[in-house]
UniProtKB/TrEMBL annotation:
Record note on quaternary structure: Homodimer.
Pfam families: Pyr_redox_2 (PF07992)
Cofactor note: Binds 1 FAD per subunit.
Keywords: Disulfide bond, FAD, Flavoprotein, NADP, Oxidoreductase, Redox-active center
Domain FAD/NAD(P)-binding: 5-299
Family: Belongs to the class-II pyridine nucleotide-disulfide oxidoreductase family.
Keyword hit for Disulfide bond: yes
Coiled coil: none
Gene label: trxB
Enzyme class: oxidoreductase
Any single GO BP term: removal of superoxide radicals
SUPFAM superfamilies xref list: FAD/NAD(P)-binding domain
Needed co-factor(s): FAD
Protein's name according to its UniProt entry: Thioredoxin reductase
Length: 314
């Protein structure tokens, strides 16, 4: 492509869409590149109740993102569906390449987000989509009136476990510690839910079955005892949902942009990375809280910083 954009935004989650909105309102030429569906992780969240000022009772991730997408497009953000595999970020014009095209921009906002961390047990890859899942919203209906297990103890794990109770007859949370890490308000709801049970101090070591998930081995990390959990004979299977954290989507930038030991991009409070004209926003960067509201704020800050730099430029 011959056009040189004022800013290219990588990712169309809350951070990327907020960046596109703010950049567009500043009359900057902006291109948003997204390889999958808009929204990132929030697109698979069934219910949102902590986004400030939300106007819809029982707001879902997809409905919130749909409005964000429409806002960004209203203010002129162009869109491309593509996967960036190679970047050249030095100099006045940044170059981003995919297998099918090349994109140029004076500034880049990296808002590529993060993806679910695997459970880490034997057989996990073989049974993905056959009983192992990382998205309750996507797959809960497949387990209506079945038993399911949720691995994790943070906000996402407990919230998704509560969502799964709408479908499954019983949900068991498996957590490697003896207490949850989720916010107290979320814990309180889970403990009151009669469909939720807990397996404390435990990790999943292996899953298996005859083509579909029918058994798993769970180890108590304190006693070393291994318990085999088997599917009910009438059900013939059960589900395991993993919610144990995220891994940043940073591949094209490894060895180019400064990152922490886990691969999250380092920025200052104004979203600047170590490379001039390159910013990072949302879940892909080092931060203490990864929520929709903080991602959107990151995107807005990054876009405003671009606008200010462009004002200096001209």
């Amino acid at each position: 492509m011959s056009k040189i954009y004022d800013v290219i935004v990588l990712g169309a989650g809350p951070a990327g869409l907020a960046a596109g909105l703010y950049a567009g309102r500043s009359r900057l030429s902006v291109l948003i590149i997204e390889k999958g569906q808009d929204g990132g992780q929030i697109a698979i969240t069934d219910e949102i109740e902590n986004y400030p000022g939300q106007i819809v009772e029982g707001e879902s991730g997809p409905s919130l993102i749909a409005r964000m997408t429409a806002q960004a497009e209203k203010f002129g953000a162009e869109r491309v569906a593509d996967t960036i595999t190679e970047v050249s970020l030095e100099g006045e014009v940044k170059v981003l390449k995919s297998a099918k095209a090349e994109y140029q921009g004076r500034n880049v906002i990296i808002a590529t987000g993060a993806h679910a961390r695997p459970i880490g047990c034997k057989g996990e890859a073989e049974y993905m989509g056959k009983g192992v899942s990382y998205c309750a919203t996507c797959d809960a209906n497949f387990f209506e009136d079945f038993e399911v297990y949720v691995v994790g103890g943070g906000d996402s794990a407990v919230e998704e476990a509560m969502y799964l109770t709408k479908f499954a007859r019983k949900v068991t949370i498996i957590h490697r510690r003896n207490e949850l890490r989720a916010a107290k308000s979320i814990q309180e709801k889970a403990f009151k839910n009669e469909k939720i049970e807990f397996m404390w101090d435990s990790v999943v070591e292996e899953v298996g079955g005859d083509d579909i998930l029918q058994w798993m081995k769970v180890k108590n990390v304190k006693t070393g005892e291994v318990t085999t959990v088997e599917a009910d004979e009438e059900d013939g299977m059960f589900g395991v949902f993993g919610f144990i954290g995220t891994i940043p989507n940073n591949k094209p930038f490894e060895g180019i942009i400064d990152m922490d030991e886990r691969g999250y991009i380092k920025t200052d409070e104004d979203m600047h990375t170590n490379i001039p004209g390159v910013y990072a926003a949302g879940d892909v960067r080092v931060k203490s809280l990864r929520q929709v509201v903080t991602a959107a704020a990151d995107g807005a800050i990054a876009a405003v910083q671009v606008e200010r730099s462009m004002s200096d430029y001209f």
